Structure formats: structure tokens, C-alpha cells
């Protein structure tokens, strides 16, 4: 099949490469000239395991092309995937300007039947807006060309995006059209050889399904974080409670790890966009509001614990930070708990020495050169001469550490672990003042 993908970010690029890899012919279009120039050379501007190899392999087969020309992408494919960003607007709703800009250019350039496939995460009712935008552009040209709009939300996770795309648990397609169902079945046929994964439903249900999934996952995280905050005050251990509840099959172990709050480009914006959608139809989504509020509070716990450990005296302290990305195996720092921590530390007059296996470039891009930020080459360099250590991301390479060594290099033996990586009793035996999440008395 011939497919066009608009957007070459985490979702667009992975979609384009994976579809080319199974034999489709794909043009991936982005408005960012520099990104496209790099991609054409086989350079991937983001870190995602396996993605560079996939881009290079499919460029070599000739089944994957990159362009900045919308007209070229529109002419190329019957299926037109929209995979551009939908960042939060000031009021928390999803900003649809990029989605609608793509819709407008499809309407401006199309010459024959197209299926516009919405892969971006968009509020219920967006397919209708996309339809109107395309129709308006066609009317301006004074032409009548048939087209369909369907919803095909993406569920991949950064860090395992290729694996998730290739082995999706389900592929949701929202459409009422038999023709679209058959084209989407053809597109995804290579992925459904072993078992049926295509779930067809109405467009509105498909749009809502994506938000419902992310809201459910965010709820699980805020729930366990609420339990962690309680265990700190009740003399219990959240890790024991986690194992105790996870063994119940109705609850399960997935996604109930306590920590310093969820981040990334999806959960925070999607929970608030869904709450906004609810308020627009006169419904107060109290659970969603609470999930977001618990998360905002949780992100502040890193700084609060550190501040209490130093009696509020953080000015001129040097704090080591391990992990900047919002989760391991990505360089994405959007809404990461580390950012809340860094910015609070700077406001308090502290200096930071940071290390992340993949997000150092992103950190430099976000914060530039500053006297109070030192980008370190490894975890050892970050703690060298620091007063305390904070762990923000559970990268594999932070999981084992020689506590005696750590005790020796830190000027004060304070470790705030936002990811519960270590056994508190071992850390304490080594002389560290170790503060994890929900494991022992709060400060
Ligand atoms: P991103 O910010 O990484 O990439 C978006 C890309 O779209 C950018 O490269 C940008 O230059 C490009 N773009 C903007 N306007 C354009 C236009 N008019 N034409 C062509 N390209 C244009 O975004 P992302 O993380 O890939 O997310 C895309 C969508 O997918 C969002 O709605 C997001 O919520 C959703 N989503 C993201 C993930 C994830 O893990 N990142 C997972 C599932 C769904």
C-alpha cells in the first residue's frame, strides 16, 4: 500500500518506519526542515531503541522517503496518517492547530479519494473538525473529491515504541465506513497474522478510548503514590503493600510502582484534556482532577524531601541528579519530574550536577549553558563533590551501587530516591540518609 505519514516525531517516525518495514511504501512529511534533512541522511533526531537501524534499513530498500512538501505526501498515499503533536493549550485542552493544519493541506492538495487517519491523540469530536477543515479547503478550490476520516489512536510507549507498534495488544479503528474498514485491514494485515487485533468501533468511541486508557494508567500511578504517602505516615512499607495487592489478579502488578510522579508528553496532557472535555459537556470529572492533583504534589516530593533533609538550607548546596528523562530508554524530558526538581533547586539557590544516559543533549537544549548546571559524563562524575544525590529516573545502570563508595563521595550522606531502587536497610547500614518513596517515616 502507499501511505503518507504527517509528523516525524516519536509516533510519526515509528509508524512510518514500521509500515515500510512490513512492505508498504511510505512518505513521511514534516514541516521541520532540519529534522527531515537529518532523517534523509539516516540520522534519527530522537533516541528510541532500534529506530536508527530501522530508518537506515528502510531508506536503503527505497520504501521509506522523507519530505517537507505536503503536496508530495498528499499525492503519494491513499492513507494519510496524521501523527503531529497535540500539546496542551493554556486551559488544559488539546491544541489542535497542527492537526487542523495537516487537514487543511490535505484538502488543498488532494486530487483523488483519501482516507485521513487520525493517529494523534485528539479529543472526541476532532474527526468532525478534520472533516470540516478538509471540506472547506476543497470548497475553496471549488472541487468535489470524496474522502473519509477515521480514528486510529496510537498506544506505543516511548522506550519500546517499535516493539509496541509491531506487537500491539489491539489496533483501534473508529469508522462507520466499510471501505475504510477494508483499507485499514489491508494496512494492518501484516500485524494480525497470529490473532485478530483490529477492533472497529465508532469514531467517537475510538477517540475516547485513547484518553480512557491513559487516564486509567495515570490513575493507577496516582493511586499507588497516594498509598506511598500514607505508608510514610503510618509506619508501613509501600513495597510490601504493592506486592500484597498486585498478587490479586483483579489488580495485577502492572503500573503500580510508586515514584516521583508521572511525566512525559502524554499522561499529564491527556488527563487534563479529558477533564477539560468533561467540563465542556457539563460534567465535573472529579477523579481525573484528583489524579492530576496527586501527581502535581508527587512531583514536588523530591524537592520537599531534600529541602527537609537540609532544614530548608539549600542555597549554595550542590545536588547530584541521576536521571533526567521522564522514564528510562528515552531522551524525552517533557513534563519530567527532574525538571520540577531542577527548577526548584535553582530557585532555592542550589547548583546541580546531572547525568542521564540519553537525555544530556535534551537537557542542554532545554536549559542551555548555566553556571548552576553541570552536565556530567557519568553517574560517578555527577556525585563527585556533591552534597546529596537525587534519583529521578530508574535507568538500569543506576540499579546497583556500592553504598560505601557513595557514602564516601557525598559531602552529606543524603540520598533521595524517587524510584525506590534500593533496599533501605542496606543503604542505611552503609551510613546513608536514604529517603525513598513510601518506605519508612517521611521526613
Ligand atoms: P512529537 O512532538 O514528537 O512530533 C510531532 C511532529 O509533528 C514534529 O516533528 C513536528 O515538527 C511535526 N509537525 C507539526 N506540524 C506539522 C505539520 N503541519 N505537518 C507535518 N508535520 C508537522 O509528537 P509525538 O510524541 O510523536 O506525538 C504525536 C501525537 O501522538 C500526539 O497527539 C501524542 O499525544 C500522540 N501519542 C504520543 C505517544 C508518545 O509516546 N510520544 C504515544 C501515543 C500517542
UniProtKB/TrEMBL annotation:
Enzyme Commission code(s) on record: 1.1.1.22
Residues binding NAD(+), per UniProt: 30, 35, 86, 121, 158, 269, 334
UniProt keyword annotation of tRNA processing present: no
Keyword Oxidoreductase: yes
Domain UDP-glucose/GDP-mannose dehydrogenase C-terminal positions: 320-424
Pathway: Nucleotide-sugar biosynthesis; UDP-alpha-D-glucuronate biosynthesis; UDP-alpha-D-glucuronate from UDP-alpha-D-glucose: step 1/1
Domain of life: Bacteria
InterPro entries: 6-PGluconate_DH-like_C_sf, NAD(P)-bd_dom_sf, UDP-Glc/GDP-Man, UDP-Glc/GDP-Man_DH_C, UDP-Glc/GDP-Man_DH_C_sf, UDP-Glc/GDP-Man_DH_dimer, UDP-Glc/GDP-Man_DH_N, UDPglc_DH_bac
Keywords (A to Z) from UniProt: NAD, Oxidoreductase
Known catalytic reactions: UDP-alpha-D-glucose + 2 NAD(+) + H2O = UDP-alpha-D-glucuronate + 2 NADH + 3 H(+)
Coiled coil: none
Binding locations of substrate: 155-158, 210, 255-259, 263, 327
A molecular function GO annotation: NAD binding
GO biological process, one term: polysaccharide biosynthetic process
Pfam families named in the record: UDPG_MGDP_dh, UDPG_MGDP_dh_C, UDPG_MGDP_dh_N
Active site: 266 (nucleophile)
Function: Catalyzes the conversion of UDP-glucose into UDP-glucuronate, one of the precursors of teichuronic acid.
Family in the record: Belongs to the UDP-glucose/GDP-mannose dehydrogenase family.
Protein name: UDP-glucose 6-dehydrogenase
Native source species: Bisbaumannia pacifica
Gene behind the chain: ugd
